Amino acid sequence: MTPTVVQPASAGPVAGTAETFSPDVFAKLQELEERSAQHEKSLRPDNTTDSYAAAWRQWELWVSGVSCS
C-alpha cells in the first residue's frame, strides 16, 4: 500500500482573482491574508528575526567564498 502524501497549502496570495470571488468574499479573503501575515510576524520577537537575518548574511558571505569546482 502506497502512503498518501498531503502537500501543505502554499502560503501566499489568494488563489484566484477578484473575478473568481464576489467582491465581499474577495475583500474578506484579503483581510484574512493580511491578519494572518501580521500574526505570523508577531510569533517571533524582532531581536530573533534580526539575529536570524545576521546569521543568514554571514552564511551567504561564507558560501560566496567557497569553491565547489
Features:
extended, 69 residues, mainly alpha, 2 helices
Describe the structure.
With 69 residues, the protein is mainly α. It is 58% helix and 0% strand. It has 2 helices and no strands. It has helices at residues 23-42, 46-65. The mean pLDDT is 83.
- Share of helical residues: 55-70%
| H-E order | HH
Mean pLDDT, as a whole number? 83
Number of strands: 0
Tell me the structural class: mainly alpha
* Low-confidence runs: none
Approximately how much beta-strand content do the residues carry? under 5%
Q: Characterize the overall form.
A: extended
Main pleated-sheet profile: none
Distance between the termini: 43 Å
Measured on Cα atoms, how large is the radius of gyration? 20 Å
The tally of helices reads 2
What's the short version?
With 69 residues, the chain is mainly α. The protein has helices at 23-42, 46-65.
